[in-house]
Design a protein that fits this description.
single chain; 804 residues; alpha+beta; Agglutinin, subunit A; six-stranded mixed sheet; 15 helices; disordered N terminus; disordered C terminus
């Protein structure tokens, strides 16, 4: 009896073991995956394997958080799984899809691969074009859905993330995107793109948007524009293959026997595209080895005109044996310590130009940093000794750091971009830091104790004689009286401290413009002339001579000019000074070398699509600053292409803001008491409705349509009446699902149809007749950048129709 019971126990254990092995075999599915099969984060060990078991498809836990999972493909036989694909949206702006415990992926009965989160909500689905019969994880790392005729209806190779594998092909328009870090798979700051003209490029992007800056690496095509695709050849590496069979190498790995190695090519979080190999003979102890990389030195490669560089704003990049590190200068810290490539922020409040800078040396000092530069942040350059260079930066409220080298001083302003530290850079950086924060920094201001001692000694000596004190007060008063009454010259560089603006005489203005010799443009109330700040530096200025100023006193004029002078933003034209002498009312601005947006937009050559998108974003940011970030709200009232000026790097800057109170109300020339320009004027101007910042939103909407289409809002000589008014035609095209007609002939925009559609929708929301339906400029920025889903806008004229 005992023997029978013992035998029964052994039999039950054997049955349990067989059951476990059977279940485990079913979990580690190899070969074809049938409809209705699924995987769950509750059983993370369950995967779908390739026949050789070299690749696995399933869920991977994100290391930085134990409760979030990626739907991914990875090298299965390597000790530390290397992920080569993960579920994300189909477009560049769609981010990684992370799900929680209880989520599952299913190959449903309709033949689609569906990822559902812990709440049962669909988080992602395959974009297959036909009903599949089964799925399979292949030995090349490609996960496929296959129909009854053995054709792929969907494959992971068509939707690469940051990695290419041998045999994988990337066609024109294909994109690789880096992620934030080795453990954070959110969208990173770098992308590799195969353009429609055949060029393979590496770009930085302006997170949180997907707007790309100019390329920091581009393939050198020696033939013609017959590039067909990027191919990962196991023996030759990553190549650009032509239609005619010729090819150009992107990576050139020196591998004696390629079949002895696993291979992958990955766009890493630091912006470097690396070709890796891993020996198959040492899977448990081996490591990925770099066989080739581009660029060799990322720190020196990214020195483009726009963008923050390899390491984000206000940081600098240090080469580190084929890799790099990103560091913050003294007085700064990482925006996010976990992601050091996203830039740095000052640990102090940057100097405001409203602050009293009569004695800047008592508030700030200059710390030194050798062999470093931010080459794209220059605001001024001049020949000077090092001590003079320090003083120039100390006394300039816009100067954040100065670079000194071989007798030349470069003043630089925030944000500091394209930072790099290397012995080859040479020179030194002088960083302006507040004295009262110096205790927390690894440096102390020079001679602070000596300066305080001198102050005490002088005070004691002067206090010993009442007579001497009276004489000193008298002399000081006379000196201050002379100082305040003397004319301010362009060459002096002095500032009226109550307004932080230069006060110029009319004679100064005449000399600077050579008696108003060169006219830049004119409007209904002013003429703009080109001038020179000083003959030595040849710093150009724009002089606006107002001829329709409201008859107010000098005090009121100065007050309004002062309010304009206190605005400081990257996308606003900077006011440098003014003239308020007799009947002359003149404003002096920084000179914009690329003229107005009108000339740029409506010229004979159409500007690039990405450049136009960046310009639109810049204008939106400038308006948001005027509406929400100024001490007192400024409504521009006349947003149009002529009032948008372009800097040397084509940064868009709004001009003529804040002039509404200085100028006569009748600015349109046709409609009394309406401010603005025909074609851009919001409908509430014509009704008994309060005027708010939404009038600028309306004008921006019209301007955005002009930027998208590269044509004026009103086109009297249009081929037909439907196209005469751009805003009306744009809504008709949008509602018909034909936004491509608006950018017909613009190949770059046609390849980016999804973004064109989004921008047109944003513009239509902005031009709604009902002001309450228009978004704020802050919301506009978020919609432009894809941070919010843009709902389908109604007919802009529906409000008018409802009250007729």
């Amino acid at each position: 009896m005992v023997m029978a019971i013992t035998a029964l126990r052994y039999l039950l254990c054997l049955l349990c073991l067989l059951t476990h092995l059977l279940l485990f075999s079913n979990a580690q599915t190899k070969g074809n995956i049938t409809l209705g099969s699924s995987l769950s984060t509750m059983k993370i060990a369950e995967t779908w394997l390739s026949p050789s078991e070299e690749f696995a498809f399933g869920f991977q836990r994100v290391e930085t958080t134990q409760d979030l999972y990626l739907l991914a493909i990875w090298f299965n036989k390597i000790k530390n799984a290397t992920i080569v694909w993960y579920a994300k949206g189909d477009s560049a702006e769609d981010d990684v899809k992370l799900v929680g415990i209880g989520s599952k992926v299913e190959l449903n009965m309709e033949g689609s691969l569906v990822l559902s989160d812990e709440n049962g909500t669909q988080a992602w689905t395959s974009a297959n074009n036909g009903k599949c019969s089964y799925a399979a994880m292949l030995d090349n790392g490609n996960f496929v859905l296959v129909d009854s005729s053995s054709s792929n209806t969907w494959q992971s190779f068509d939707y690469p993330t940051d990695t290419l594998l041998p045999t994988q092909v990337m066609n024109q328009g294909g994109l690789l995107s880096s992620h934030q870090s080795d453990t954070n798979f959110s969208l990173g700051r770098f992308q590799m793109l195969l353009l429609s003209n055949g060029s393979l490029v590496l770009n930085t992007i302006a997170l949180p948007t997907v707007y790309s800056y100019e390329a920091y690496w581009i393939s050198r095509d020696k033939t013609n524009l017959t590039t067909d695709k990027v191919v990962f050849n196991e023996s030759a590496g990553v190549i650009i293959k032509k239609n005619d069979g010729d090819y150009t190498n992107v990576t050139i790995p020196e591998v004696a026997k390629p079949t002895d190695y696993y291979q992958r090519a990955t766009l890493d979080p630091d912006g470097v595209f690396r070709h890796y190999i891993f020996p198959k003979t040492n899977l448990r102890e081996g490591n990925w080895t770099i066989a080739y990389q581009i660029p060799v030195d990322i720190c020196s490669a990214i020195l483009v005109e726009t963008g923050s560089g390899a390491c984000g704003f206000n940081s600098y990049c240090k080469p580190d044996g084929g890799s790099s590190t990103c560091e913050c200068p003294k007085g700064f810290s990482y925006i996010d310590i976990k992601y050091t490539r996203n830039g740095c922020k000052p640990d102090f409040t940057p100097l405001s130009c409203e602050a009293n800078m009569a004695q800047p040396e008592t508030q700030f000092y200059m710390a030194e940093l050798a062999d470093t530069d931010w080459p794209r942040a220059d605001s001024d350059k001049q020949t000077a000794a090092e001590d003079t260079c320090k003083e120039l930066c100390l006394r300039d409220c816009m100067c954040a750091v100065a670079r000194y080298m071989d007798g030349t001083c470069w003043k630089k302003k925030f944000p500091l971009s394209n930072g790099r530290m290397d012995p080859s850079v040479g020179g030194k950086i002088l960083i302006k830091l507040p004295i009262n924060d110096s205790s927390s920094l690894n440096s102390s201001p020079p001679n602070k104790r000596d300066r305080n001692t001198r102050i005490v000694i002088v005070s004691v000596l002067l206090g010993g004689s009442v007579f001497v004190n009276l004489i000193l007060i008298l002399v000081t008063s006379l000196a201050l009286l002379w100082y305040n009454q003397r004319p301010q010259r362009f060459c002096s560089g002095q500032r009226k401290m109550d307004m932080n603006l230069n006060a110029y005489t009319y004679n100064d203005i005449e000399k600077a413009t050579e008696s108003f010799k060169e006219e830049l443009g004119r409007g209904a109330c002013a003429i703009v002339y080109k001038g020179v700040m000083t003959l030595e530096s040849r710093t150009f200025i724009a002089v606006k001579k107002l001829d329709k100023v409201v008859k107010e006193g000098e005090k009121e004029f100065k007050a309004e000019v002062s309010s304009i002078g206190r605005t400081h933003h990257k996308n606003l034209v900077q006011l440098l000074g003014y003239c308020n002498e007799g009947t002359h009312r003149i404003l002096v601005y920084e000179f914009m070398s690329n003229g107005s947006l009108a000339n740029f937009l409506f010229g004979s050559i159409r500007p690039g699509w990405n450049q136009r998108v960046r310009i639109a974003s810049g204008i939106a940011r400038g308006l948001n600053y005027l509406h929400e970030e100024c001490n007192s709200q400024i409504i521009h009232c006349d947003i149009k292409p002529q009032n948008i000026l372009l800097h040397g790097d084509f940064t868009a800057k709004i001009s003529d803001f804040g002039l509404a109170k200085l100028l006569k109300i009748d600015q349109s020339g046709t409609i009394t008491e309406i401010r603005g320009t025909k074609g851009y004027v919001a409908p509430e101007w014509f009704k008994s409705m309060p005027i708010t910042s939404k009038v600028d939103v309306y004008s921006f909407g019209i301007l955005l349509l002009e930027i998208i289409c590269c044509r004026r809002n009103v086109k009297p000589n249009a081929e037909n009446d439907e196209k005469a008014i751009l805003s009306e035609w744009a809504y008709e095209c949008y509602s018909a699902g034909r936004v491509d007609v608006l950018v017909d002939g613009d190949e770059e925009a046609m390849d980016d149809k999804r973004r064109v559609e989004r921008l047109v929708a944003v513009a239509i929301w902005c031009i709604q007749d009902q002001p309450s339906l228009r978004p704020s400029m802050k919301k506009v920025i978020q919609m432009l950048e894809g941070a919010f889903q843009v709902a389908v806008p109604p007919d802009p004229n529906s409000f008018i129709s409802s009250i007729d």
